[in-house]
Amino acid sequence: MFKAKVLIKRRKTILDPQGKAVEIGAKHLGLSNIKNTRIDKYIEFDVDTKNKKAAEEEVNDYCKKLLANPIMEDYEFTLEEV
Amino acid sequence: MLSETKTAFGGKTPKFGVVVFPGSNCDHDTYYALRKILDLDVIFLWHKQTSLEDCDVIILPGGFSYGDYLRTGAISRFSPIMNEVISFANKGGYVFGICNGFQILLEAGLLPGVMIRNESLNFVCKDVYLKIGNKNTVFTKGLDGKDSLKIPIAHGEGNYFADQNTLMELEDNNQIVFQYCSNNGTISIEDNPNGSVQNIAGIINKKGNVLGMMPHPERSTDPVLGKTDGSLIFRALANNIFN
Known about the structure:
The complex is a heterodimer of chains A (82) and B (243). Chain A has 82 residues and is an alpha+beta fold.
């Protein structure tokens, strides 16, 4: 079994309204050096396979078809045997 | 009004199917508009069924299917009925996505682009005006006398985005059917409620059989509510399908 940790990031060319709004909060807090806030997604799950390659394939499939939208997002992940 | 609608179809009336996903909340409004206001044949289709029951038009209604988790429309896109809807669309069947239904069509790849959070981050619920960019679709043919339609929006993620190539393709093929505009039909940033590129409110696929729009035409059909421009779209669709 493997623990998958997936990070899904919106491409830099696509506006992140949430990040922009949160950064306004930073300004209000007086944190004037904060720039380029982006809010992405972190997803964790287990993959019940013995073989790491099979786990990778399944995670790629999950990411490409459902977890990330390839039109606007990129993903990366790590697998750790548990 | 009801009898006028019936005779306009020259005998053959299209059958509408409204898909009900867990979290759809405009399914009954749409059913009501079609059945009670427009006197059209309409049934509900549960998202787990795999038959479209010989419907001529499939409507993916507004709402918050699967709680909008992950991304709007991302999980509904894998509901069992969607395989049938996709193959129906690919064979030329008419599919109409409204609000969350539009988001589902984008996730399903039946329409290009993506929907992101409104630029203001606010959920925007108000009447807007729509300029009809293409009056030659099955959804808009016959609306010649209209410069703009008054139809309400109600969404938090209606900020349409597509890359430059996709936008050029949409323009070249006349696929931008609705754009947010002022009440006299001019398009400017002031009339853009959500940050959509080019004020896009609705697009159609290249083949012209799949339309997605963020505004809610079903909420603009009953005269009691003071606006009826939405009924023009449903009526045009019903009139044009068999012609």
